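Slide 14.
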Amino acid sequence: MITAGDKSKPALVLLHGAAANILGWGAAIPEYMRDFLVIAPDIPGEAGRSAPKRPSWNGDEYIEWLDDVLAALRVERTALLGLSLGGWIAARYAASHPQKVCRLVLLAPGGLAPMRAAALLKTILFSMQRQKGAARMKRMVFGRDEILPEVSRFFDLLQQHYVPRIGSPPLLSDEQIKRVACPVLMMTGGEDAFFDAQKASARLKRMLPGSEVHIEISGEHGITEYGGRIASFLAVT
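Slide 15: predicted structure.
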């Protein structure tokens, strides 16, 4: 886990996506540590140095883990920013502990719309193709966007050394979504290969009418914007 910033400032927890770790927040941490105490943990079972055991997608293991992290750091209330799997965990936590979350940012989150069947099949196929599969997976995540050399190298290392979990966590129920009590910002790509942005947006707006939703028409699953709308949303107290 990385913590950065002044401990007297409000807390902001960053939760990365599947098959990733805290390295993915390299550009975000300096951006946010000016205004927040940034807390960026490796999610257990993913490609980091946290516990190798993968918590179950069913039940409350991820929620209990995140609550333990916050308790150990003596954080009673925080903003959450989650990408993909991290968005699913963040939304689940906000639903389970609404009094502990002041703002919720969901980037291409899981849990609001089913994973596309084609994405599931491609993920299985690409995981078996080593370097060729790594190149195809990069394009599946980032589309036509420029891929930085260090990000490309990270994907190559994943393909060589990491066994991904196949599938997607279960959808949040309507009752779970309705229990979220804080302001919510969702950003997703209109060309996301994994989740249908329009379906996710419509469901969130139906369950939480006050939510702020931005769909980048040509955007993909790999959301890379860390300033702009997100910073403005988080700055409002």
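Speaker note: The CA atoms of residues 95 and 177 lie 6 Å apart.
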